Amino acid sequence: MLKRLYILCAMFIMAACSSPAEGHDDGVNDVAEVLVGATDTTAYMPMLRDRRVAILANHTAMYSAEEHVVDMLHREGVNIVGIFAPEHGFRGRVEAGLKVDNSVDEKTGIAILSLYNGKTQRPSDGVMSSFDVLVVDMQDVGLRFYTYYISMLRMIDACADFGREVIILDRPNPNGHYVDGPILDMKYPCCPRSYYGRDCCDGCG
Fold first, then answer.
1. Which uninterrupted H or E stretch holds 103?
2. Residues 6+ apart with CB under 8 A from 177
3. Is the pLDDT of residue 31 over 90?
4. Staple 92 to which of 48, 59, 112, 163, CB 3.0 to 4.6 Å?
5. Residue 199 CA: distances (Å) to CA of 141, 174, 185
6. Would you give the distance in Å from CA 30 to the centre of its chain?
7. Using an 8 Å Cβ cutoff, are 61 and 38 in contact?
């Protein structure tokens, strides 16, 4: 009996690991390509023309495999008046948890204002008055304690207070298919404060 069961299991494993028969269409090639928000330029570029544009982004905001979205917008002549940098900095060169300083982007010459320097949770009134629309593009992984989405939400709050428009160039959450992790105990202070809720991994796509 055990020998027969072993043979059956081996047959199932061999069948599962074998390649599809020649000419068989298993549907894998029919999966649609995932396009991120930055590539849909026809949708958002008209909203940037002849306006003062600020950008909240980091190194994940790629327009293509070779070009960052800020570099593309700069190349296209969009009036980018400033870049807001989250944790790790605009180009992603700062180690986790270290403060990010204000600077100037070497590639474009655009001023960078840090949102992760231990002091600035939202820009000054003067800075908020210096742009008309904020573009946000950052890859996130849907974890309660990550700081990217918190920087974004603080900027959305500030833009709401100053009547500034916000355009979010969305990217899919690679962890969007499940909810997991320890539950936040609301008796204890949480820093940064969780906007997602109590789950560690929120499961939002």
1. strand 103-104
2. 203, 205
3. no
4. 59
5. 13, 16, 10
6. 26
7. yes
161's tokens: 């207070």
Number of H helices, E strands in the chain: 5, 6
Cβ contacts of 4 within 8 Å, gap of 6 or more: none
The pLDDT of residue 7 is 36
Q: How far apart, in whole angstroms, are the C-alpha atoms of residue 127 and residue 113?
A: 9
- Give the per-residue pLDDT at 197: 52
Strand partners, 143: 201
Given a contact cutoff of 8 angstroms between Cβ atoms, the answer to whether 159 and 193 are in contact is no
Q: Whole-angstrom Cα distance, residue 36 to residue 18?
A: 34
Q: Please give the radius of gyration of the chain, using alpha carbons only, rounded to the nearest integer.
A: 23
Element (H, E) at 135: strand 133-137
What mean pLDDT is predicted for residues 93-117? 92
Per-residue confidence (pLDDT) for residue 204, from 0 to 100: 57
Whats the size of the chain, residue-wise?
205
Q: What is the mean pLDDT of residues 164-178?
A: 84
Q: Which long-range contacts (CB under 8 A, 24 or more apart) does 174-180 make?
A: 174/141, 175/141, 175/142, 175/143, 175/201, 175/203, 176/142, 176/203, 176/204, 176/205, 177/203, 177/205, 178/203, 179/203
Burial label for 159, CB within 10 Å (0-12, 13-18, 19+), is buried
